[in-house]
Structure formats: C-alpha cells, structure tokens
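We emphasize that the prediction below concerns an isolated chain of 149 residues; any contacts that depend on oligomerization or on bound cofactors are therefore not represented. The input was used exactly as deposited, without trimming of termini.
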Amino acid sequence: MTPRQSCTAPIQEHIDGVIHDLLVSFPDPEQLSPDERRGIIARYTAVLEGNFIYWMTAAYLSVASEEAHSVIRDNLLEEVRDNHPGMMRKFAMAADAFPTDSDALAVHRMDYPLAPATNPLEGVEVLLALIQNIVHPRVADQLHLQVNR
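Result of the prediction step, given as a token string:
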C-alpha cells in the first residue's frame, strides 16, 4: 500500500459504508405500485434537474486535489455537453412521470446537505452528500419498471 493509498483508505471505507447503508434502505422496486414508482422518478427528476450541476460545481469548488478537480470537471463537461437535464426531463415525460407541482413541493421542502457554494465546504462531505442524494443504482430499476409497465 502506497502512502497515498493509506491516506485515502479510511475515506474510501467511509464512502463505501455510506453507499451500502443507502442501498439497503431502498424499497424493493417489485413491491412498489406504479404510482409509487412514478412518484420516485418524478421527485428524482425534480431534485436533479435543477440541482445536479450546481452540486457538482460546489464539489468542484470545495475539493483541493487536481485529480478530484479533473474528475469533476470531466463530469460537468459531460453534463452540459450532452444536456443530461434535458435527457432526464424527456425520460420522465416518456415514463408518464414528469414532476407535478406536488412533486416539486415535496422535494423543495427537503433538507439538502449541501449549502450554497459561498459557504466553506469540505470536499469529502460534499462528495458524500452527492452520493447520498444522487447515486443509487436502484433508480435504474425504478425507471425500467415504470417505462415497461
């Protein structure tokens, strides 16, 4: 193990634990009704469409390493170049899950763990918040079930 790996190993263990805890907390998509699946997709779309690029920018501003900057910059460029928010909106419409005013209000009242980028942010905390709020493979299961209903 290199010195760098020994410094990052506890962080990676923590991230892996957060991801695991998050994944086991999700309901089984097969057990959800079509309306519950629609609601998950709609609220997911409502949260991400307007916030993901902002959150990634906050992460970019808060990390110190050039390696992290490079990874986040590449992600931001792909988000903008490929219009991922637009893709998500089109998918939600195709799945009959476009966010309603109720969906938007439900996520508007949520407590986001990310403060405005003007506040001091710890890079690891921002990245963990992104993981907790965004990255979860079971969303793909939800999407597949809704589209193929």
